[in-house]
Each structure stands twice: as C-alpha cells, then as structure tokens.
Design a protein that fits this description.
Blueprint lengths: L3 E6 L4 H15 L3 E8 L18 H16 L2 E7 L17 H14 L4 E4 L4 H4 L1 H17 L4 E5 L1 E2 L9 E5 L2 E4 L4 H10 L4 H6 L13 E8 L10 H8 L6
Parallel strand pairs: 1-2, 1-4, 2-3, 4-5, 6-7
Antiparallel strand pairs: 5-9, 8-9
Helix pairs in contact: 1-6, 2-6, 3-5
C-alpha cells in the first residue's frame, strides 16, 4: 500500500507546476506527501512589476511562497540550504553547487526518515533542460539504486504525444498521464502562492491570469525499478489508474 511519498525538486514552484495535481490527489487519499526543495530559488525572477524589491530578500520570499503552496497541496516540507545561482546572460541556466555523493546520501536519508515507498522527482532531461533539475534527478536515482533499491522512483513531465508542452522530458515517454482538473482548484491555489513567479507563469503564452496557466495534464514515468518494457503495476500505478490516468 502506498503510504509515504517524498518529492524532490530544485526550486520553489517546481512542485506545483510539475506535480501539484498528483500531490493533491495523493494527500486527499490520506497518503503522506513530503516535498523537498533543494534551493530557495534565490537566483530566479523578482516579478513584474517587482514583487521583491531587493534580490537579497528573494530567497526568504520564495521559501515563504513555497510553504504556502505546499500547505495548499496538503503536504509537508523540507528546504535544503543549496543556493540557486543567478540566471546568466541570454538566460543561461546553471545547477546549484553540491557534492554529488553528499547530495545523493542526503536525499536518501530524508526518504528513510519519512519511510517513503515512492519518490517523485524531475525528469532526466530537466524538463526544459534545466541543469539543476537534471542534477536532482541524477542524485535521486543514484542514491535510491545503491541505498534504497526497494523504493519506487517516478519522474514527472514525461512525454505525452499529441499534447504540446515545453516542459515534457522529450526522451522519457510517459507511462501515465492524468487529467488533474478534479484537483485543479487546489493546484491553482498553490500557484497563487508563488506570487513572485506569476509573471513567468503567464509570459510565454501571453496569458492574463494565473488560472489560464494551469497545466491540466500531468504525467509520469517509472524509472526505478526498470519495467523492462512492461506497463507498471505497482501501488502508484494502480492509484493513478483508479483516478482516471491513461497510458499515452
């Protein structure tokens, strides 16, 4: 039985944008969900117009936004002390600095403390190629394979053909896709918490409201243990099917 889930993400808002609907689904089923944020997102945007006047305050503001969002989703939270680097010229993105082995062990230790039997994390492509997302993915998989091999690992934003989304991990076809509109109001409430990032949510498609930015289909792929080409049939897979998920 699925009892405890730990979700590892690089920045505040990743948890909501990429998996908010599935997290709400699980917490409504009385499954314990714990979100781990690797950084406070202090290298990100200040908002338009600026929501945060002083960049030195951005990390604290975004951590508060993250706590608000996770509460809306019904989950609990740990924020680690890694520092999100500034976006470079021409929007070049960077990973946060971390000793890889230490990071992997840290992730495993949190999962052990939470008695997790499922881990959700970034896809191997980093969704839109973000190196920090890719780093979290690699550290989670490395730690689980060597130290917690009995734990399921699923990655988010797996590719769903025929649905256009720049966040899909193009090299990772989805095992399951879920219409999360039954949990949409919860996800929107969590998105509203991330005020400093609202302009970013709306900018690419020139949207007017945060509600319009809701991603209504979330998807996952099982990365561990290997399915060897067979459809997953574990506790999370059964929960998703019961909730209406399909295999693209």
């Amino acid at each position: 039985m699925l009892r405890s889930v730990v979700c590892y993400f690089a920045h505040p808002d990743d948890e909501t944008v990429l998996a908010g609907g599935m997290i709400a689904l699980m917490t409504q089923q009385n499954i314990r969900v714990h979100v781990v944020g690797a950084t406070r997102g202090e290298g990100g945007e200040l908002g338009e117009p600026p929501v945060v006047a002083d960049r030195a305050d951005l990390g604290a503001v975004r951590e508060a936004e993250l706590r608000c969002a996770v509460k809306q989703l019904g989950a609990t939270l740990t924020v680690l002390d890694y520092v999100d680097p500034l976006i470079g010229p021409d929007e070049v993105l960077y990973p946060f600095e971390a000793d890889f082995d230490t990071l992997a062990r840290q992730f495993v230790e949190i999962a052990r403390q939470r008695q997790a039997n499922l881990i959700l994390t970034h896809g191997g492509d980093g969704e839109y190629g973000h190196p920090a997302h890719q780093l979290v993915n690699r550290a989670v998989l490395e730690g689980v394979r060597h130290l917690m091999p009995h734990v399921l690992v699923y990655t988010v934003s797996a590719l769903v053909p025929n649905i256009e989304d720049r966040l899909w991990n193009q090299s990772e076809p989805a095992h399951f896709a879920l219409d999360i509109r039954p949990w949409g109001e919860i996800k929107i409430a969590a998105m509203e918490c991330h005020r400093s990032q609202h302009a970013l949510f709306k900018r690419r498609k020139r949207l007017r409201t945060v509600r319009e930015a809701l991603r209504t289909v979330e998807s996952v792929r099982r990365q561990w243990p290997d399915t060897h080409g067979e459809p997953p049939n574990d506790d999370f897979a059964r929960l998703l099917r019961t909730a209406g998920a399909w295999t693209p």
